[in-house]
Amino acid sequence: MAITADKGIKVGIFSKTFANDGPHYGDPAFSFLVAQPLFASDYTYSTIKLPDGNDFNNKLTLTIKASHVDGLRLDEQEFNTTWVELPGTDYVTGWLYVSPGTHNVYHVDPSKTFMALATGTEEFNSYAFASGMRLTQINRPCIPSSPTEGDILDNDCDGQIDEELENGIDDDGDGSIDEDFSLGPRVNGNWGEWGNWSACSVTCIVNGTRSRTRACDNPAAANNGLDCSGDDNEVEVCDNTGIPCGGQ
Ligand SMILES: [Ca+2]
Ligand SMILES: [Ca+2]
Ligand SMILES: [Ca+2]
Fold first, then answer.
1. Domain around 221
2. Ligand closest to CA 156
3. What are 98-139's pLDDT values in tens digits?
4. Which of 35, 69, 82, 204 is the most buried (most CB within 10 A)?
5. Residue 182 Cα to ligand 2 middle (Å)
6. Transmembrane residues, as ranges (predicted)?
7. Whether residue 95 sits in one domain with residue 36
8. Residues lining ligand 1 (ion), CB within 5 A?
């Protein structure tokens, strides 16, 4: 179902029962839903854990344009789900189970936005909340502005926010090129080659140490991508046994 309004409205989803999700899953849950212009491309959120209770059956429900599903990642991994078309729209929705804890769901292209709704059921409890949203004004008089990367403004006043990539291509097919652009595609960092080992810290028969460094620049992380994990320097024992010490 799609709801369209030219005035500010608030839309919520009330789940009367999760009775079809297992035995005794009876409590209701409620969440506000996010308006499409406030969809984001990157959410980090945590599931809910009771102080002393069973883990929830945690689900993540995603709503996105059908043509954009391929770039979605959950915790850096591609994932499979069954997408269901939303009648009268070019959107689809699908859900999957997630483990208890913190998750990051994102689209590799920040101009491709979607809604993420977290829900969970436990024997006598349930929860529902939007995993996040853009915080920006909608349904307000719009003044055209020149775009800057990821400014979260509707620069061309077409009702869409940061809907392009700055790439000389009309990504959204509206006849304008780069009229309102998002951050560029997310790039995770990758280590470059190790540099040369330094000279050994001693030059005679006692063991010393030497070190080398590397940089997270192959490529460097960009546009909210992850930095490299691991150390950027390495130290090891070096052995100059047999090299005469000067003056001895
Ligand atoms: Ca726009
Ligand atoms: Ca573009
Ligand atoms: Ca365009």
1. 187-248
2. 1
3. 999 999 999 999 999 999 999 988 877 889 999 999 988 887
4. 35
5. 9
6. none
7. yes
8. 154, 156, 158, 160, 180
